[in-house]
Amino acid sequence: METEDNTVNCENDEEKMDDKSENPWPYLEEFFMYRGKKGDSVQMQCKLCLTATIISAYKTSASNPKKHISRKHPSKMEQ
């Protein structure tokens, strides 16, 4: 929606990041930093990767972050 000064109002944009929500998987804080939500997905940044690797996961499933750790950082997996 455009305002009178032709700027775009993004207040209702579902795709913008919501940083006010909490990390749904606090037990993964050793490996990931919570970056926010985008729609129904949670954005997590891997703390172990040298580059800023962002992992996206559906809000009710931590399988993507867990798979990332097992594939990219197998030495960090619990035995």
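Next protein, fold it too.
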Amino acid sequence: MNETPESDYLVNTIGQPLSLGIAEVCAVQPADPIEWLSGWLYKYVESAEWLKAYKKDKWEKSVIEA
């Protein structure tokens, strides 16, 4: 299979979260897997944004204290 810039972009941006979400769908087996996956992905994004802000804040505090 030939890799294209578009496929590289998708793999690098949503590949891991989508794989994790689909694995969770398989484990949970919700009645509406599409709806459940959309909620899971939304929470994943919120968690990733929170973690990024937390790491930035922690780094800024370490620079100030140094």
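About the second fold: The longest helix spans residues 33-65.
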